[in-house]
Amino acid sequence: MGTHALETRTGMPVRSASQAGRHVRWLAGGFVLAFLVPFLFADLLELPRDLYYAVYVVAVASYFGLWVHATGQSFAEMVRRRWLLAVALGLAVAGILVLVVLRTEDATARPDGLELVGAVAWRGLVYGLADGLLLSAFPILAVFAAFAGTALRRRLLGVAAIALVALVASLAMTAVYHAGYSDFRSEKLRKPVAGDVVWSLPTLATLNPIGAPIAHAGLHTAAVLHSYETDTYLPPHE
User: Fold this and answer.
1) pTM of model > 0.90
2) First CA to last CA across the chain, in angstroms?
3) Do 211 and 90 meet the contact criterion of CB atoms below 8 Å apart?
4) What is d(CA 198, CA 75) in angstroms, rounded to the nearest whole number?
5) C-alpha 174: how far from its chain's center?
6) Running along the chain, 238 residues long, what does each successive block of 10 average in pLDDT?
7) Within a 10 A sphere around the Cβ of 134, how many other Cβ atoms?
8) What is d(CA 23, CA 139) in angstroms, rounded to the nearest whole number?
9) Which of 31, 121, 149, 206 could, after both became Cys, cross-link 14 (CB 3.0–4.6 A)?
10) Quick one: which of 154, 130, 123, 139 has its CA closest to 236?
């Protein structure tokens, strides 16, 4: 039976093994990127934090964009997918993460005025969005894209199994990324890995790339406002 016949019967595009392999290779490249950017630019070159964030944001946005283009994804369709639910879940999880920051981190001194506004915008929102995109949205979407058109995607248990694989990929991405920072090569690594289970939920539930970044931006914004000198959030730490 030809590919066209399968598409007609199922109403879904059929992915060949080679197409699925492309997503797997892009995912593997994402792991390399996630480790090398903090390792090279934060640990070895010791760039100032805000300059490092610029390198990180450009690297993440560029890599995600290249993956979307090279694998024939439609970013517009991704963003439209269950977008109201994605935004609602993102904001709800952001609220939970704000409470986590407030209850687990000590309040520290912070700048005020325009410097604080800039820190919230850059370190909280922009860096938070990039983090959520790389650590959760990209690995989750890449795993689901690799299984697009398969029998698993047409069965409830199959979708649940793919979701589990996607969550594991996101947890691994979070661990690899934080291992790029010297201070996270310790028991401290458990904190962001545990947090990934929470901030990944909006994208995992909707397959919309905006859910997890919204949640993550809430986490980082809370860290900027409440615990500016945090040694848990907003790496690299001095």
Assistant:
1) no
2) 60
3) yes
4) 24
5) 8
6) 38 58 93 97 95 98 95 91 96 96 91 94 97 97 90 85 96 97 92 94 96 96 93 86
7) 28
8) 10
9) 149
10) 123
